[in-house]
């Protein structure tokens, strides 16, 4: 049983709770969980934002004027940032963190049983209740049980 969840959404705790519940009822099932990565472009944007954030904060703190380096007139907001280093760095840090969080947040809580998707929060819009998950697992395990022939054309389910 594999869980893929949105770490930034706080679904790791939900995964841990579900894993404990499932281990109690189905001790023979192996349970793993990992982060559901956002689409490639979103992850790229988040990484670029993180890098730009550090470059801008270091430039403000060190007094480097990036605009003069490129032969561009220094904007008034940059002058304000260099005069108010603490406030500007805090503002840049928190604003870019919010944007990064937006880009890496997927809202996913996906469940796969034997590499077959059995639940998708992205499709249903909600996380399954424990009884629903138990029913899904029970039904899947029932379908996986081998059948033995009774008479030609008939099968008996092994218990």
TrEMBL record:
Q: What's one GO-annotated cellular component?
A: endoplasmic reticulum membrane
Name the InterPro entries on file: Selenoprotein_Rdx-typ, Selenoprotein_T, Thioredoxin-like_sf
The UniProt keywords, alphabetically, are:
Membrane, Redox-active center, Signal, Transmembrane, Transmembrane helix
One Gene Ontology biological process: cell redox homeostasis
Q: One MF term from GO for this chain?
A: thioredoxin-disulfide reductase (NADPH) activity
Q: Where are the transmembrane segments?
A: 44-67
The protein's name in its UniProt record:
Putative selenoprotein t
Asked whether the keyword Transmembrane is assigned, the reply is yes
Q: Which domain of life is it from?
A: Eukaryota
> Is Signal one of the keywords UniProt gives this record?
yes
Span of the signal peptide: none
């Amino acid at each position: 049983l594999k869980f893929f969840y949105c770490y930034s959404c706080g679904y790791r705790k939900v995964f841990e709770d579900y894993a404990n519940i499932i281990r109690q009822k189905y001790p023979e099932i192996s349970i793993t969980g990992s982060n559901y990565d956002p689409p490639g472009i979103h992850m790229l944007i988040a990484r670029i934002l993180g890098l730009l954030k550090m470059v801008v904060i270091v430039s403000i703190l060190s007094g480097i004027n990036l605009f003069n380096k490129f032969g561009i007139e220094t904007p008034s907001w940059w002058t304000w940032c260099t005069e108010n280093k603490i406030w500007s760095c805090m503002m840049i840090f928190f604003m870019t963190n919010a944007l990064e969080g937006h880009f890496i947040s997927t809202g996913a809580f996906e469940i796969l049983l034997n590499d077959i998707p059995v639940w998708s929060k992205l499709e249903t819009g909600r996380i399954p209740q424990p009884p629903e998950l138990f029913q899904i697992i029970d039904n899947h395990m029932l379908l996986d049980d081998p059948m033995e022939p009774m008479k030609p054309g008939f099968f008996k389910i092994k218990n």
